[in-house]
Amino acid sequence: MSVLIVTSVGDIDVDLHTEECPITTKNFLKLCKIKYYNGCLFHKVERDFLAQTGDPTGTGTGGHSVYKILHGDQDRFFDDEIRPDLRHSNAGTVAMAGGSQFYFTLRDGVDGLDGKHTVFGMIAEGESFDTLAKINESCLDDKGRPFMDIRIKHTYVLDDPFDEPPRLAELIPGNSPVGKPRDETAEERSQVPFDETVDCSEDALSNNVVIVSCDHCGGGIPGVEQPDNVLYVSKLNPITQDEDLHTIFSRFGTVTSAEIIRECKTGDSLCYAFIEFETKEDCERAYFKMENSLIHDRRIQVDFAQNVPKLWGRFRQSKLNADKDDGCLLKCGAPDHLPRDCDQGVEEENKGTNYVVKDQNTHGGGNNRRSYDLAFDDEGNNADLEDHPGADRNKILKVEASPSG
C-alpha cells in the first residue's frame, strides 16, 4: 500500500504500514484521496533531523484528521499506534505529528522521537531520497521554514485496502486542486510561480542569460573587465547582515564573499550588496533562483554585478574628489595624477621594513656601548642583508649606538 506525493522539488513514494497502524494509515490515505494535502507547505525543516508538512494553514498549528472532517469535533483526535518494532531508525521514516500533519526523518537514528509519535510509513528507494535531500539542503529562516516555498502539489493513492467511509466520495474533488490551500495564513514568500519550474541546465543558461546593467552601478567602470561570478543584490532590509546573505546564497555554491555596502561614517546599510561565487555557473544559478525572493520581509532584486565593490568604491571616491577628468582612478584613488605616474608600488617597496628592537644589554651590565639586534619580520624585503650567525629564519642587522644616542 503506497501513496505518491508530488512536491515542488520532486516526487516522494511512501510505503505504508497499513496492518500495523490501520487507524493512522486510513486517516492519511483518505486525506490524500480528498486532496487535503494539495498545496501544503513544508512549513518546518530541521536540517539533518526532520521535515514537517500537512498543515493547510502553513503555520504548524492547523490541520484536521479525516475523522474530524467526516464526524465532527468529537473525532478530531485518534489514538496513537506506537509499535516497538516501528522506530525512527532510518532516514525517510514517515510519522504522524497530529491531526493531518506528518513528517519525514532526514537522517538515520532519530531515536529521540521513538515512543512519541506513530511511525506509519517509509519512503521508497531512488528518486524519493533525492527529493528528501533537496528539502534537507533548502535555505531556511530562523523558524525553520524554507526561504523558497516547498509545497505538496498533488497526492496519488496507488493502493488503498480500506473501505470508503460514508460521505467521503462527496469530498473528493473532480480535478486535483492547484495552488496554495484556501486556509493558508502563513506569510507569502514563493519566488517561482506555483506550477512552473526553472530550467537551470547549461544549455538553458547559455541561451537565456541576459546581462543587464544595474541602475545603481551606472553600467560599470570604464576600462575594467566585468566579473561573471558576482551578483548585485538590491532592496535589502537594513537589518540584513553579511552572514545572512552568505548563508542564503551558499545553497547555490561556494560563496567567496558576501558584502553589504554601508555608509562610511555611520556604518548603516545602504541596502545593496555584492555576492561573489567561486564559479560563474553557481552565480548564474543563484541569479535565476533568488530574483524577487523574500529576505527579512523585503523582496530583493538580483542582477549580474557590473563591477566589484572595492573597485567601484575607489572610482566613486575619486570622482567625488576630482575637479578634472584625469586622475589615478583605479590604482590608488587619488585624483591628482594618472595611473602611469602613480608611485604607490614604489612607496610600498620603500616604505621601510618592520622590525623589533632587542636590547642585549639591558639586564646584563656590559660596556658603555649598547648594541641592538633588529629582527626583520619579512625575509624577502631584506635579501641584500647578510645573515646573522645563528639566525635560522630572520635576517639580522647589527646597529651600535653610543651611550648618549
UniProtKB/TrEMBL annotation:
Stretches assigned to coiled coil: none
Main location: nucleus
Gene3D superfamilies: 3.30.70.330, Cyclophilin-like
Any one Gene Ontology molecular-function term assigned to this protein's record: RNA binding
Localization per Swiss-Prot or TrEMBL: Nucleus
Domain of life of the source: Eukaryota
Comp. bias intervals (Basic and acidic residues): 180-190, 385-398
Keyword check for Isomerase: yes
Sequence ranges assigned to domain PPIase cyclophilin-type in this UniProt record: 7-157
Residues annotated as domain RRM: 229-307
Top EC group: isomerase
SUPFAM superfamilies: Cyclophilin-like, RNA-binding domain, RBD
A family per Pfam: RRM_1
Keyword match ATP-binding: no
Enzyme Commission code(s) on record: 5.2.1.8
Keywords from the UniProt entry: Isomerase, Nucleus, RNA-binding, Rotamase
Sequence similarity: Belongs to the cyclophilin-type PPIase family. PPIL4 subfamily.
Purpose: PPIases accelerate the folding of proteins. It catalyzes the cis-trans isomerization of proline imidic peptide bonds in oligopeptides.
Protein name, UniProt field: Peptidyl-prolyl cis-trans isomerase
Species this protein is from: Triticum aestivum
Classification of source organism: Eukaryota, Viridiplantae, Streptophyta, Embryophyta, Tracheophyta
